[in-house]
Write a structure and sequence with these properties.
Pfam families: Oxidored_molyb. By secondary structure, this protein is α+β, with helices and mostly antiparallel strands. It is 40% helix and 11% strand. The chain has helices at 2-16, 33-44, 61-88, 120-134, 136-150, 159-186, 196-228, 250-266, 332-337, 365-372, 399-403, and strands spanning 319-323, 326-330, 341-345, 358-364, 381-385, 394-397, 408-413, 416-417, 427-429, 442-447. The strands form two sheets. Strands 2-1-10-5-6 form a five-stranded mixed beta sheet.
Protein backbone atom coordinates (compact mmCIF):
# COMPACT_ATOMS: atom_id res chain seq x y z
CA UNK A 1 0.00 0.00 0.00
CA UNK A 2 2.77 2.43 0.92
CA UNK A 3 4.53 1.94 -2.44
CA UNK A 4 1.34 2.57 -4.43
CA UNK A 5 0.72 5.79 -2.50
CA UNK A 6 4.29 6.88 -3.25
CA UNK A 7 3.82 6.27 -6.97
CA UNK A 8 0.51 8.14 -7.05
CA UNK A 9 2.14 11.07 -5.26
CA UNK A 10 4.99 11.19 -7.75
CA UNK A 11 2.63 11.10 -10.74
CA UNK A 12 0.62 13.95 -9.24
CA UNK A 13 3.73 16.04 -8.58
CA UNK A 14 5.18 15.56 -12.05
CA UNK A 15 1.82 16.24 -13.68
CA UNK A 16 1.19 19.51 -11.88
CA UNK A 17 4.78 20.67 -11.75
CA UNK A 18 4.79 21.00 -8.01
CA UNK A 19 2.54 24.12 -8.00
CA UNK A 20 -0.83 22.58 -7.33
CA UNK A 21 -2.25 23.80 -10.73
CA UNK A 22 -2.74 21.88 -13.99
CA UNK A 23 -0.40 22.82 -16.79
CA UNK A 24 2.82 24.85 -16.72
CA UNK A 25 3.46 27.12 -13.79
CA UNK A 26 2.94 30.86 -14.25
CA UNK A 27 5.87 31.38 -11.98
CA UNK A 28 8.40 29.75 -14.30
CA UNK A 29 10.60 26.77 -13.35
CA UNK A 30 9.84 24.40 -10.49
CA UNK A 31 10.45 25.83 -7.06
CA UNK A 32 12.20 22.66 -5.82
CA UNK A 33 9.16 21.17 -4.15
CA UNK A 34 9.41 17.89 -6.09
CA UNK A 35 13.02 17.09 -5.06
CA UNK A 36 12.09 17.87 -1.45
CA UNK A 37 9.23 15.38 -1.57
CA UNK A 38 11.48 12.79 -3.22
CA UNK A 39 14.01 13.23 -0.41
CA UNK A 40 11.28 12.62 2.15
CA UNK A 41 10.17 9.47 0.34
CA UNK A 42 13.75 8.18 0.18
CA UNK A 43 14.12 8.92 3.90
CA UNK A 44 11.00 6.84 4.59
CA UNK A 45 12.64 3.82 2.93
CA UNK A 46 15.43 4.04 5.46
CA UNK A 47 13.04 2.98 8.23
CA UNK A 48 12.60 -0.74 9.04
CA UNK A 49 8.82 -0.26 8.91
CA UNK A 50 9.02 0.51 5.18
CA UNK A 51 8.89 -2.28 2.63
CA UNK A 52 11.61 -0.49 0.68
CA UNK A 53 14.03 -0.95 3.59
CA UNK A 54 14.22 -4.74 3.08
CA UNK A 55 15.59 -5.46 -0.39
CA UNK A 56 16.97 -8.99 -0.30
CA UNK A 57 15.75 -10.97 -3.33
CA UNK A 58 15.92 -14.19 -1.29
CA UNK A 59 13.02 -13.36 1.02
CA UNK A 60 9.62 -14.69 0.10
CA UNK A 61 6.73 -16.71 1.42
CA UNK A 62 7.94 -19.93 -0.20
CA UNK A 63 11.43 -19.56 1.27
CA UNK A 64 9.96 -19.00 4.71
CA UNK A 65 7.47 -21.85 4.31
CA UNK A 66 10.24 -24.40 3.63
CA UNK A 67 12.19 -23.29 6.70
CA UNK A 68 9.00 -23.30 8.76
CA UNK A 69 8.18 -26.90 7.90
CA UNK A 70 11.73 -28.00 8.78
CA UNK A 71 11.36 -26.28 12.15
CA UNK A 72 7.91 -27.81 12.63
CA UNK A 73 9.40 -31.30 12.51
CA UNK A 74 12.67 -30.46 14.25
CA UNK A 75 11.30 -28.37 17.10
CA UNK A 76 8.56 -30.90 17.77
CA UNK A 77 11.25 -33.57 18.20
CA UNK A 78 13.32 -31.28 20.46
CA UNK A 79 10.29 -30.38 22.59
CA UNK A 80 9.10 -33.97 23.05
CA UNK A 81 12.57 -35.29 23.91
CA UNK A 82 12.97 -32.38 26.33
CA UNK A 83 9.81 -33.41 28.16
CA UNK A 84 11.10 -36.98 28.27
CA UNK A 85 14.36 -35.74 29.75
CA UNK A 86 12.44 -33.96 32.49
CA UNK A 87 10.41 -37.10 33.23
CA UNK A 88 13.61 -39.14 33.48
CA UNK A 89 14.61 -37.11 36.54
CA UNK A 90 11.61 -38.51 38.45
CA UNK A 91 10.53 -35.01 39.59
CA UNK A 92 7.19 -36.27 40.90
CA UNK A 93 8.88 -38.94 43.02
CA UNK A 94 10.49 -36.87 45.75
CA UNK A 95 11.02 -33.17 46.43
CA UNK A 96 14.79 -33.64 46.24
CA UNK A 97 14.45 -34.65 42.57
CA UNK A 98 12.09 -31.81 41.69
CA UNK A 99 14.11 -28.89 40.42
CA UNK A 100 10.91 -27.24 39.17
CA UNK A 101 8.57 -26.84 42.15
CA UNK A 102 5.14 -25.39 41.53
CA UNK A 103 4.86 -26.75 38.00
CA UNK A 104 1.18 -27.60 38.62
CA UNK A 105 -0.69 -28.91 35.60
CA UNK A 106 2.44 -28.64 33.44
CA UNK A 107 3.57 -31.91 34.98
CA UNK A 108 0.46 -33.77 33.85
CA UNK A 109 2.41 -36.14 31.61
CA UNK A 110 5.01 -37.35 34.14
CA UNK A 111 5.33 -41.11 34.41
CA UNK A 112 7.56 -43.73 35.98
CA UNK A 113 10.74 -43.65 33.91
CA UNK A 114 11.60 -47.16 32.66
CA UNK A 115 14.94 -48.95 32.93
CA UNK A 116 14.84 -50.42 29.47
CA UNK A 117 16.20 -50.25 26.96
CA UNK A 118 19.33 -49.34 28.88
CA UNK A 119 20.32 -46.76 26.24
CA UNK A 120 16.96 -44.96 26.35
CA UNK A 121 18.13 -41.75 28.03
CA UNK A 122 21.30 -41.74 25.96
CA UNK A 123 19.12 -41.72 22.84
CA UNK A 124 16.43 -39.23 23.89
CA UNK A 125 18.82 -36.69 25.41
CA UNK A 126 21.27 -37.08 22.54
CA UNK A 127 18.45 -36.30 20.09
CA UNK A 128 17.30 -33.37 22.21
CA UNK A 129 20.68 -31.66 22.42
CA UNK A 130 21.96 -32.57 18.96
CA UNK A 131 18.66 -31.61 17.35
CA UNK A 132 18.68 -28.27 19.11
CA UNK A 133 22.23 -27.51 17.98
CA UNK A 134 21.61 -28.56 14.37
CA UNK A 135 18.48 -26.39 14.14
CA UNK A 136 20.29 -23.17 15.09
CA UNK A 137 21.06 -22.14 11.45
CA UNK A 138 17.50 -23.00 10.41
CA UNK A 139 16.04 -20.94 13.24
CA UNK A 140 18.27 -17.95 12.47
CA UNK A 141 17.42 -18.17 8.76
CA UNK A 142 13.70 -18.33 9.56
CA UNK A 143 13.93 -15.28 11.83
CA UNK A 144 15.88 -13.43 9.15
CA UNK A 145 13.26 -14.29 6.54
CA UNK A 146 10.37 -12.84 8.55
CA UNK A 147 12.10 -9.90 10.20
CA UNK A 148 10.27 -7.32 8.00
CA UNK A 149 7.01 -8.42 9.62
CA UNK A 150 8.35 -7.66 13.08
CA UNK A 151 8.61 -3.97 12.11
CA UNK A 152 5.39 -3.75 10.09
CA UNK A 153 3.03 -0.87 10.88
CA UNK A 154 0.40 -0.62 12.17
CA UNK A 155 1.20 -3.25 14.81
CA UNK A 156 -2.29 -4.72 14.58
CA UNK A 157 -4.70 -4.27 11.69
CA UNK A 158 -7.39 -6.52 13.16
CA UNK A 159 -8.07 -8.88 16.02
CA UNK A 160 -6.78 -11.81 13.98
CA UNK A 161 -3.64 -9.91 13.07
CA UNK A 162 -3.12 -8.96 16.71
CA UNK A 163 -3.34 -12.62 17.74
CA UNK A 164 -0.83 -13.51 15.04
CA UNK A 165 1.60 -10.87 16.33
CA UNK A 166 1.23 -12.11 19.92
CA UNK A 167 1.87 -15.69 18.84
CA UNK A 168 4.91 -14.50 16.92
CA UNK A 169 6.22 -12.70 20.00
CA UNK A 170 5.83 -15.83 22.14
CA UNK A 171 7.34 -18.00 19.43
CA UNK A 172 10.38 -15.84 18.71
CA UNK A 173 11.00 -14.90 22.34
CA UNK A 174 10.48 -18.44 23.61
CA UNK A 175 12.65 -20.00 20.90
CA UNK A 176 15.54 -17.58 21.47
CA UNK A 177 15.34 -18.06 25.25
CA UNK A 178 15.29 -21.85 24.99
CA UNK A 179 18.14 -22.01 22.50
CA UNK A 180 20.33 -19.55 24.41
CA UNK A 181 19.81 -21.15 27.84
CA UNK A 182 20.21 -24.64 26.38
CA UNK A 183 23.45 -23.80 24.59
CA UNK A 184 24.86 -22.13 27.69
CA UNK A 185 24.02 -25.20 29.77
CA UNK A 186 25.63 -27.49 27.19
CA UNK A 187 28.81 -25.48 27.34
CA UNK A 188 28.81 -25.56 31.16
CA UNK A 189 28.82 -21.77 31.18
CA UNK A 190 25.28 -21.20 32.33
CA UNK A 191 25.09 -17.61 33.58
CA UNK A 192 21.37 -16.91 33.94
CA UNK A 193 20.06 -16.15 37.44
CA UNK A 194 18.25 -19.03 39.05
CA UNK A 195 18.32 -22.71 38.25
CA UNK A 196 18.54 -23.88 34.65
CA UNK A 197 15.87 -26.53 35.14
CA UNK A 198 12.81 -24.38 35.98
CA UNK A 199 13.80 -21.62 33.57
CA UNK A 200 14.23 -24.03 30.68
CA UNK A 201 11.10 -25.97 31.66
CA UNK A 202 8.78 -22.95 31.89
CA UNK A 203 10.38 -21.36 28.84
CA UNK A 204 9.59 -24.49 26.86
CA UNK A 205 5.88 -24.18 27.63
CA UNK A 206 5.84 -20.49 26.71
CA UNK A 207 7.52 -21.38 23.44
CA UNK A 208 5.01 -24.20 22.86
CA UNK A 209 2.07 -21.83 23.29
CA UNK A 210 3.42 -19.53 20.59
CA UNK A 211 4.49 -22.47 18.45
CA UNK A 212 1.05 -24.12 18.43
CA UNK A 213 -0.76 -20.84 17.79
CA UNK A 214 1.60 -19.90 14.98
CA UNK A 215 1.40 -23.32 13.35
CA UNK A 216 -2.41 -23.19 13.52
CA UNK A 217 -2.41 -19.81 11.81
CA UNK A 218 0.30 -20.40 9.21
CA UNK A 219 0.50 -24.13 8.43
CA UNK A 220 -2.45 -24.27 5.97
CA UNK A 221 -0.98 -21.45 3.88
CA UNK A 222 2.54 -22.88 4.05
CA UNK A 223 1.33 -26.28 2.81
CA UNK A 224 -0.70 -24.61 0.05
CA UNK A 225 2.30 -22.58 -1.10
CA UNK A 226 4.61 -25.60 -1.12
CA UNK A 227 2.11 -27.76 -2.99
CA UNK A 228 1.23 -25.25 -5.69
CA UNK A 229 4.52 -23.37 -5.83
CA UNK A 230 2.66 -20.07 -6.04
CA UNK A 231 0.42 -17.76 -4.02
CA UNK A 232 -2.59 -17.87 -6.36
CA UNK A 233 -3.28 -14.18 -6.39
CA UNK A 234 -2.19 -13.50 -2.81
CA UNK A 235 0.38 -10.85 -2.03
CA UNK A 236 3.86 -12.07 -1.09
CA UNK A 237 4.27 -9.73 1.84
CA UNK A 238 7.82 -10.96 2.50
CA UNK A 239 9.15 -10.32 -1.00
CA UNK A 240 10.81 -6.95 -1.58
CA UNK A 241 9.00 -4.67 -4.07
CA UNK A 242 12.38 -3.39 -5.26
CA UNK A 243 14.93 -6.15 -4.61
CA UNK A 244 18.65 -5.77 -5.02
CA UNK A 245 20.44 -7.62 -7.79
CA UNK A 246 20.68 -11.27 -6.63
CA UNK A 247 24.07 -12.45 -5.42
CA UNK A 248 22.73 -15.85 -4.37
CA UNK A 249 19.69 -17.85 -5.36
CA UNK A 250 17.15 -19.20 -2.91
CA UNK A 251 18.50 -22.67 -3.56
CA UNK A 252 21.93 -21.36 -2.68
CA UNK A 253 20.54 -19.87 0.52
CA UNK A 254 18.99 -23.23 1.44
CA UNK A 255 22.34 -24.87 0.72
CA UNK A 256 24.10 -22.43 3.07
CA UNK A 257 21.63 -23.14 5.86
CA UNK A 258 21.97 -26.88 5.31
CA UNK A 259 25.76 -26.66 5.28
CA UNK A 260 25.68 -24.74 8.57
CA UNK A 261 23.50 -27.39 10.18
CA UNK A 262 25.72 -30.16 8.81
CA UNK A 263 28.82 -28.46 10.20
CA UNK A 264 27.22 -28.18 13.64
CA UNK A 265 26.19 -31.84 13.47
CA UNK A 266 29.70 -33.00 12.58
CA UNK A 267 31.30 -30.88 15.32
CA UNK A 268 28.90 -31.90 18.08
CA UNK A 269 27.60 -35.44 17.60
CA UNK A 270 30.98 -36.96 18.43
CA UNK A 271 30.48 -36.30 22.15
CA UNK A 272 28.30 -39.43 22.23
CA UNK A 273 30.61 -41.77 20.30
CA UNK A 274 34.07 -42.73 21.45
CA UNK A 275 35.44 -43.06 17.91
CA UNK A 276 34.28 -39.53 17.00
CA UNK A 277 34.86 -37.80 20.32
CA UNK A 278 37.82 -35.78 19.06
CA UNK A 279 35.54 -34.15 16.47
CA UNK A 280 33.16 -32.75 19.08
CA UNK A 281 34.72 -29.30 18.98
CA UNK A 282 31.63 -27.33 19.96
CA UNK A 283 30.29 -29.37 22.85
CA UNK A 284 31.80 -30.51 26.15
CA UNK A 285 33.09 -34.03 26.57
CA UNK A 286 33.41 -34.02 30.35
CA UNK A 287 37.00 -33.09 31.17
CA UNK A 288 39.26 -32.24 28.27
CA UNK A 289 41.32 -35.40 28.69
CA UNK A 290 39.67 -38.22 30.66
CA UNK A 291 42.91 -40.18 30.58
CA UNK A 292 43.47 -43.79 29.62
CA UNK A 293 42.87 -47.15 31.20
CA UNK A 294 39.70 -48.65 32.69
CA UNK A 295 38.70 -45.32 34.30
CA UNK A 296 39.53 -43.30 31.19
CA UNK A 297 36.06 -42.13 30.20
CA UNK A 298 34.17 -38.86 30.52
CA UNK A 299 33.47 -37.15 33.84
CA UNK A 300 31.16 -34.22 34.49
CA UNK A 301 32.19 -33.36 38.03
CA UNK A 302 35.42 -34.34 39.72
CA UNK A 303 35.93 -35.16 43.38
CA UNK A 304 37.84 -31.91 43.85
CA UNK A 305 35.05 -29.82 42.28
CA UNK A 306 32.57 -30.98 44.94
CA UNK A 307 35.13 -30.67 47.76
CA UNK A 308 35.65 -34.36 48.51
CA UNK A 309 38.86 -35.11 50.36
CA UNK A 310 40.72 -38.43 50.78
CA UNK A 311 39.52 -38.51 54.40
CA UNK A 312 35.89 -38.61 53.20
CA UNK A 313 36.47 -41.78 51.18
CA UNK A 314 39.26 -43.41 53.19
CA UNK A 315 39.23 -46.01 55.94
CA UNK A 316 36.58 -44.18 57.94
CA UNK A 317 34.07 -44.35 55.08
CA UNK A 318 30.99 -46.46 55.69
CA UNK A 319 27.87 -47.21 53.69
CA UNK A 320 24.76 -46.98 55.85
CA UNK A 321 21.75 -48.97 54.64
CA UNK A 322 18.45 -48.03 56.30
CA UNK A 323 15.03 -49.67 56.31
CA UNK A 324 12.74 -51.75 58.55
CA UNK A 325 15.78 -53.75 59.68
CA UNK A 326 17.33 -50.58 61.10
CA UNK A 327 20.61 -48.93 60.17
CA UNK A 328 23.30 -51.27 58.88
CA UNK A 329 26.85 -50.04 58.26
CA UNK A 330 29.24 -51.67 55.79
CA UNK A 331 32.87 -51.10 54.94
CA UNK A 332 34.02 -51.33 51.37
CA UNK A 333 35.67 -54.67 52.12
CA UNK A 334 32.38 -56.05 53.45
CA UNK A 335 30.58 -54.90 50.30
CA UNK A 336 33.22 -56.60 48.16
CA UNK A 337 32.64 -59.81 50.12
CA UNK A 338 28.97 -59.87 49.06
CA UNK A 339 27.74 -61.45 45.84
CA UNK A 340 29.05 -59.33 42.97
CA UNK A 341 27.20 -58.73 39.70
CA UNK A 342 28.19 -57.04 36.45
CA UNK A 343 26.29 -54.84 34.00
CA UNK A 344 27.33 -53.10 30.78
CA UNK A 345 25.77 -49.63 30.96
CA UNK A 346 26.56 -46.15 29.56
CA UNK A 347 26.66 -42.82 31.33
CA UNK A 348 24.44 -40.21 29.69
CA UNK A 349 24.31 -36.59 30.85
CA UNK A 350 21.76 -33.80 30.48
CA UNK A 351 24.31 -31.78 28.48
CA UNK A 352 23.94 -34.39 25.75
CA UNK A 353 27.25 -36.23 26.03
CA UNK A 354 27.41 -39.92 26.80
CA UNK A 355 29.87 -42.77 26.98
CA UNK A 356 29.90 -46.18 25.45
CA UNK A 357 28.89 -49.08 27.68
CA UNK A 358 31.25 -49.52 30.62
CA UNK A 359 31.47 -52.77 32.57
CA UNK A 360 30.36 -52.06 36.11
CA UNK A 361 30.64 -54.52 38.98
CA UNK A 362 29.19 -54.35 42.46
CA UNK A 363 26.26 -55.24 44.72
CA UNK A 364 22.72 -55.23 43.32
CA UNK A 365 20.45 -52.58 44.82
CA UNK A 366 17.71 -55.11 45.33
CA UNK A 367 20.08 -57.26 47.42
CA UNK A 368 20.83 -54.27 49.62
CA UNK A 369 17.08 -53.63 49.88
CA UNK A 370 16.66 -57.21 51.14
CA UNK A 371 19.24 -56.55 53.84
CA UNK A 372 17.33 -53.39 54.79
CA UNK A 373 14.16 -55.43 55.37
CA UNK A 374 12.52 -55.72 51.94
CA UNK A 375 13.28 -59.29 50.77
CA UNK A 376 10.32 -59.70 48.41
CA UNK A 377 9.36 -56.46 46.67
CA UNK A 378 11.99 -53.74 47.02
CA UNK A 379 10.69 -50.16 47.21
CA UNK A 380 12.38 -46.99 46.01
CA UNK A 381 15.56 -45.74 47.60
CA UNK A 382 16.83 -42.37 48.77
CA UNK A 383 20.54 -41.97 47.95
CA UNK A 384 22.92 -39.61 49.73
CA UNK A 385 26.46 -38.66 48.76
CA UNK A 386 29.38 -37.31 50.76
CA UNK A 387 29.88 -34.48 48.26
CA UNK A 388 29.67 -31.07 49.94
CA UNK A 389 28.65 -28.81 47.09
CA UNK A 390 26.85 -28.88 43.77
CA UNK A 391 23.40 -30.17 42.79
CA UNK A 392 22.09 -33.71 43.22
CA UNK A 393 23.98 -34.48 46.42
CA UNK A 394 20.82 -36.46 47.16
CA UNK A 395 18.54 -38.27 44.73
CA UNK A 396 15.60 -40.66 44.77
CA UNK A 397 15.18 -43.76 42.60
CA UNK A 398 11.92 -45.55 41.86
CA UNK A 399 11.09 -49.10 42.87
CA UNK A 400 11.36 -50.34 39.27
CA UNK A 401 14.88 -48.95 39.15
CA UNK A 402 15.84 -50.70 42.39
CA UNK A 403 14.37 -54.01 41.21
CA UNK A 404 16.21 -54.09 37.90
CA UNK A 405 19.02 -56.66 38.26
CA UNK A 406 21.38 -54.32 36.38
CA UNK A 407 21.01 -51.58 39.01
CA UNK A 408 24.14 -51.70 41.11
CA UNK A 409 26.02 -50.07 43.90
CA UNK A 410 29.14 -50.20 41.74
CA UNK A 411 32.55 -50.76 43.31
CA UNK A 412 34.56 -51.38 40.14
CA UNK A 413 34.46 -50.39 36.49
CA UNK A 414 36.05 -52.20 33.56
CA UNK A 415 37.81 -54.61 35.92
CA UNK A 416 39.44 -51.95 38.09
CA UNK A 417 38.60 -50.13 41.31
CA UNK A 418 36.64 -46.93 40.76
CA UNK A 419 38.81 -43.83 40.56
CA UNK A 420 38.00 -40.94 42.93
CA UNK A 421 36.49 -38.94 40.07
CA UNK A 422 34.26 -41.85 39.08
CA UNK A 423 32.82 -42.21 42.57
CA UNK A 424 35.20 -44.23 44.74
CA UNK A 425 34.48 -45.95 47.07
CA UNK A 426 30.96 -46.68 45.72
CA UNK A 427 28.49 -45.19 43.25
CA UNK A 428 25.06 -45.89 41.83
CA UNK A 429 24.63 -47.14 38.27
CA UNK A 430 21.10 -47.61 36.92
CA UNK A 431 20.09 -48.45 33.33
CA UNK A 432 18.52 -45.61 31.30
CA UNK A 433 18.86 -43.07 34.13
CA UNK A 434 20.31 -39.56 33.70
CA UNK A 435 23.91 -39.32 34.81
CA UNK A 436 23.14 -37.13 37.82
CA UNK A 437 20.91 -39.87 39.27
CA UNK A 438 23.86 -42.28 39.13
CA UNK A 439 25.11 -40.75 42.37
CA UNK A 440 28.82 -40.90 43.13
CA UNK A 441 30.57 -41.17 46.53
CA UNK A 442 27.49 -42.80 48.10
CA UNK A 443 27.36 -42.85 51.88
CA UNK A 444 23.74 -43.73 52.69
CA UNK A 445 20.86 -45.70 51.14
CA UNK A 446 17.40 -45.37 52.72
CA UNK A 447 14.85 -47.85 51.36
CA UNK A 448 11.14 -47.25 51.82
CA UNK A 449 8.50 -44.59 51.28
CA UNK A 450 9.94 -41.48 49.62
Amino acid sequence: MGDRRHKRTLRFLFRFGGTGRAGPSDDGPSTGRVPAVLDRLRTTDRLPSSSGFWRSPVRGVRFTAVLGLVLLVGLTLVFVTGLLSYAAYNPDLAPVNDKTPGKGVLGFYLFAWPTGPHWLYRLTQGLHVTGGIVLVPVLLAKLWSVIPKLFALPPARSVGHALERVSLLLLVGGALFEFITGLLNIQLEYVFPGSFYPLHFYGAWVFLAGFVAHVGLKLPRAVRVLRSGELRGETDELASPAPHTPTISRRGAFAMVGAGSLLLLVTSVGRSFDALRSTALLTPRGVADPGTGPNGFQINKTAASVRITPADTGERWRLTVSGPAGDLAFTREQLLAMDQYSAALPIACVEGWSTANQWWRGVRLRDLAALAGYPDRPPGVFVESVQRSGPFRKAALRDNQVRDPRSLLALEVNGETLSPDHGYPARIIVPAAPGVLNTKWVTRLTFGEL
